[in-house]
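[Q] Does anyone have a clean structure-token version of this?
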Amino acid sequence: MTQVEKYKKPVRILHWIHLVAFVLLFLTGLVLFIPGLGFLAEDSWTRVIHRIGAAVFIIAPLIYLIVKPKSVLHGIKMAFTWGSDDIGWIKALPAYYFKGDESKMPPQGEMNTGQKLWWLIVLVFGFLLVISGLIMWFAKTSAPPALLQWMVFIHDVSFIVAGAMFFVHIYNGLFHPLFNEAWSAIYRGTISEGYAKKHHGKWYAELSKGKE
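[A] Here you go.
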């Protein structure tokens, strides 16, 4: 079966590094977020792990930005570029997601609308998590109490939104039957030609035209 390259190796490496960092942040943040789990934070070892995860979470994308600035800007542009095909995708989503009805799904680009939505959430709420977290970390004793309270609120809301969408992302990538090659895409970097046509029709057409 003919394979199409979906993600280059540097993108996949960044994805897995960021995933590990996020999981560390999520688990150690969950300990602080739920009072009943507070005993796990004794001796502050979870705080140390949380800060290590935060450092990796911030530094890894910055390194990638330095190495691949055009790729980063291209990805950000895609996340914030929405059109009629995206609106059509959202309208067709319930029947598509729960019943497998693809009849009203408009052809998608390099990122389909669902991926763009996830990427947009990563960018927006990842930024809010980083900014609020850094202020709480480095300005805990110097920032005004009102500012710190707002940072805690923003951090908690961002944690809930990003965490909830993370579970949706994992379910879609590993278990949902419609996205059976998502794992292959991010693990091996390739998807089948048929999967590319079905899920990224516009992108595949552009890719084929470029090869010709």
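[Q] Thanks! Anything notable?
[A] The mean pLDDT is 92.
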